[in-house]
Amino acid sequence: MEQLTIEGLKQIKEQTLPSMTLADGHFRLMVCAGTGCVSCGCFKVRDRLETELNERGLSDRVKVVTTGCNGFCAQGPIMVVQPQGVFYKKLTVEDIPALVQEHFINGSPVEKYLYTDLASKKKIPLMGDIPFFRHQTLRALRNRGLIDAENIHEAIARDAYAALSKVLLSMTPEEVIQEVKTSGLRGRGGAGFPTGQKWEEGRRYTSFPKYVICNGDEGDPGAFMDRSVLEADPHAVLEGMMICGYALDAHQGYIYVRAEYPLAIHRLNIAIAQARSYGLLGKNILGSGFDFDIDIYPGAGAFVCGESTALMLSLEGKRGMPRIKPPRSTEAGLWGQPTVLNNVETFANTPSVLLKGGAWFSSLGTSGSKGTKVFALTGTIENVGLIEVPMGTTLRTIVYDIGGGIPDKREFRAIQIGGPSGACLPASLLDTEVDFDSLDEAGAMMGSGGLVVMNDSTCMVDTARFFTDFSVDESCGKCTPCRIGLKVMLNILHRIIAGKGTMEDIDLLGRLGEHIKESSHCGLGKTAPNPVLSTIRYFRNEYEAHIQEKRCPALVCADLIQFRVDPDRCKMCGLCKKACPAEAVTWEKKTPAVIDSTKCIRCRSCIQACKFKAIE
Amino acid sequence: MSLQLDIVGIEELEKIDRVIAKYKGRHGSLIPVLKESQDVVGYLPKLVQRRIAAGLNVSPSQVYGVVSFYAFFTIVPRGKHVIRVCLGTACYVRGSQQIIERIEKELGVKVGGITKDRKFSLEAVRCLGACGLAPVMTVGQDTHGMLDPGRAIEIVRSYT
Q1: String of b and e for B131-141 (b: at least 16 CB within 10 Å)?
Q2: What span, in angstroms and rounded, lies between the C-alpha atoms of A156 and A164?
Q3: CA-nearest residue of chain B to A36?
Q4: Which residue of A236, A248, A429, A542 could cross-link A425, Cys pair, CB 3.0 to 4.6 Å?
Q5: CB A72 within 8 Å of CB A132
Q6: Chain B residues touching residue A39 (CB < 8 angstroms)
Q7: Nearest neighbour of A219 by CB, restricted to B65, B98, B126
Q8: Is B39 near chain A, with CB under 8 Å?
Q9: What is the CA radius of gyration of chain A?
């Protein structure tokens, strides 16, 4: 295809916009096709919609568009009817004919598929009125659900590559870096390193070639921000990388994406092919003389490869073991050349910084953390999904206003932030603001943005064990404190969970944890003890209950559960008998259940089934 | 191991040679070559590792070092259907451990193992990034969400 110029870019925008802004009686049906909705069968729903609209001769005025992730994953398959923004959830293929008839012929939204407000139990038709969406501020996700993720024209109509053209034709690299510095943008991968400063360092070294790397090795369990950004708006990430390349005088970029994200890789491939075909990647981009190209590199499944130096070694085809810094990657990174590596979300934020200015970007947020942050809100919470909020929003707002609180009349126990390197914070810290510094103070860290809510059926000692187990597994083994120290911590935790711990073990865990933090080489080791240290700090009583009373308050650690029915609390419903796979429960109507300990396999099925907490 | 594992057909080896030829001389080609080779054979037995080492002119120890480092690579065969149960945080707090235990029991296979009829292999993975649907497992290319142990077994049984 022809080499696109600035004029051509504007033309595409002008030609595409009318099809996106709709005349009376015209609709765009934005069917969410993020990983969540795909696994709920959204493509079948979409196909049925298309056939149905065709058969009824509506396809001229009602268009079906496949978008990236909307974020409200638990409600999938999701469809938003534009221009009004009517939000439909949990659609099934069978209901499509009736829905088409009702909404697009009779003209009224179908109640059945509208979102029901948790508190008032009223139906909320419009997406913007749903609390989950209302409290969000979209910047990195500004295009979510609004564009066809596989169509570059729609991205351009929403100003993709406008920042790039501004940068290439009217700004010097130094001005670009200055603007990013003004914005106060800090790395969204977890550590929060100032982006502008990193770019400046990368520019200072004059060894060529230089490289730009986008880190999409999103390994934190409970985090899927990068996946959603890549699936919904891949061009924003490509554009961010190109701007970075221009600032550094680099001409090659790599996107390192987890192999577990096939859809993200697929959409990126499409986006890159489209950008190349318009000459937005390649030689002499937009006639400016600037050359840049991007290749995708699927990871091979190693958590530690999210660490920047390990990621670069992995790109070189080696074992991804972090190397000792200095030199920093900005001096000697990929293949020993100056390299700037940023996270997906960081790059997705960059185009707006350049288009609207650093001052605009920094108008939102706290003194040390500017802009917004995308979080993956998961665990035992009503509204599971992906959210973007201004820095400085409190955890309480996120859990209760956006997340809708804890389901099943359970109580909030902890919120886990920052992945396996993060911390579990208790209810007393719910008013903590999410920004890099206040989370650090609380012994947590921003991390890449996983927020896992845990209710009172979660044992904090077991949670600490879970994360330590993860870190032991994923430790690359290069340095001793992490490789051996974590294993020793894990053994102690196992001991406590088995009811064989001593009170000295708690102090020992604390001391070991501090040593590992101080003496490990890379970020994995430096942060891996955080889950243990934070649970000891905030949930010490649970450790004590395991050790002194040989009791697991949350009834998770099987060795410390008696599997005995408390006849006073038993409501004689028989659910435990139904749930038991070993036929260890005897129960008859109007008598409390009894568990036969010789048959019991300690599987906890009865505890999960009991609604009255009668099993202890 | 009692099974003879290192049987790789001539055709497959030729395919691997083509993969090697495609990447030869490129920077950082080892991991993509291993990936595509694993797609061809299903796993990476010693024979294949040696062939790749010779083809890319790197030492077999370097190849084995990479194969053993990354979770994506396997040196034992995988079943016809690979079951991957997510043990990410979100799935874990929603009970994915119980799902694994149930599948282990029903199929008579441990995590990392393969059933005797080679139909299923069971793996535990760290976060599939579909936390909105926790607990989640994938069977082959299909993602299944919002599971409980009973439903998980039903789904597994539906694969033949």
Answers
A1: bbbbbbbbbee
A2: 11
A3: B130
A4: A429
A5: yes
A6: 130, 133, 136, 142-145
A7: B126
A8: no
A9: 26
CB distance B71–A302 less than 8 Å? yes
ipTM of the complex: 0.84
Are A379 and B94 inside 8 Å of each other by CB?
A: yes
Domain ranges within chain A, ordered by starting residue? 16-130, 152-362, 372-455, 460-548, 562-616
CATH classification for the domain delimited by A460-548, as one of 3.10.450.50, 3.40.50.620, 1.20.1440.230, 3.40.50.300: 1.20.1440.230
Residues 6+ positions from A362 with CB-CB distance below 8 Å: A182, A183, A184, A370, A371
Quote the DSSP letter at residue A368. Answer: S
Q: Are A89 and A72 in contact (CB under 8 A)?
A: yes
pLDDT in tens, A368-421: 999 999 999 998 999 988 999 999 999 999 999 999 999 988 899 999 998 888
**DSSP symbols for A478-521:** -SHIIIIIHHHHHHHHHHHHTT---HHHHHHHHHHHHHHHHH-S
Instruction: Provide the pairing of β-strand A293-298 with A252-257.
Output: parallel
Q: How far is B32 from chain A (nearest CA, A)?
A: 8
A312 vs B contacts (CB less than 8 Å): none
Contact B72 A320 (CB under 8 A): no
CATH second-level architecture of A562-616?
2-Layer Sandwich (3.30)
Q: pTM of the entire structure?
A: 0.91
Pair of tokens at residue A292: 């840049």
Joined tokens for residue A323: 């190397």
Chain B residues inside the 8 Å CB shell of A558: none
CATH code for the domain of B120: 3.40.30.10
Q: How many helices (H) and strands (E) does chain A have?
A: 26, 17
- Give the domain extent around B41: 10-69
Q: Residues 6 or more apart from A599 whose CB is under 8 A from it?
A: A582, A583, A584
pLDDT greater than 50 at residue B3: no
